[in-house]
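Can't attach files on this board, so I'm pasting raw text. These are the components:
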Amino acid sequence: MSTLTAAQRRERDRAAYDAFLAACPARQLLDRIGDKWVSLLMAALSDGPMRYAELGRKVAGISEKMLTQTLRGLERDGLVTRTITPSVPVRVDYALTPLGESLGTVVRELKRWADTHMDAIAAARDAYDTRTPGA
Amino acid sequence: MSTLTAAQRRERDRAAYDAFLAACPARQLLDRIGDKWVSLLMAALSDGPMRYAELGRKVAGISEKMLTQTLRGLERDGLVTRTITPSVPVRVDYALTPLGESLGTVVRELKRWADTHMDAIAAARDAYDTRTPGA
DNA sequence: CGGCATCCTGAGAGATACTG
DNA sequence: CAGTATCTCTCAGGATGCCG
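---
Top answer:
Structure tokens for the assembled complex are below.
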């Protein structure tokens, strides 16, 4: 039977699309750098290695949970290294890998586009909001 | 008094940081293109103008709500145009603006990095998961 | 056809408290 | 110092149904 409701069809399509998206490299990359803390942490580390608590202070608003979670993710992806020095108060340093620095370069290109064009976007936004005053 | 609890200090810091982030162009851009549907929709539109329902079919898994919502956001930011043809069944076409195409170029650069380096990330991920088998 | 209002659920963000 | 564990709660996003 081709008797599929719109909902059923969409569900099937979504499953197929999800598989496609999971395999899409660009999608994975966007998910990573789109993460609120990833870019901030990497920017902080681009100045050189830092300790756990230093990062927590530098990025200010981050909770310990997200700090740990994000760093773990970055470590897993080979973007940062985690170096444990087993002194009496343990010391843990995080640093960018070459891969991480490479990604940092790309992100900075993105930032350059942002710096050049975001005022145009802001202007468009203002114009739009003026055109659509109430709602 | 400097008698602030850790929570109070963090809250104050977060407020300040939120303000900083809201003003940061790069952050705004990342929030945009990090959105699951934005890049997909823009990729679809890079082939030329499309109608509402066409987009819905091309992007397959998207719900009508997200389709409308995302398109509105892109229109507001001056990245796409929305053209209404008041025929009897209404016809609405969406197309990239020059600004939108410019952004598309940047995103494609990002995609190039992804295509070149995501296998390294996947490898790092595998290695990490092997090193950390149980948990 | 194209779109908005409404309700509802689940993933994920943060606070808190405890451990090596 | 550097986490881990647990709980709560928000809110993005999907389903549904109605309008122009």
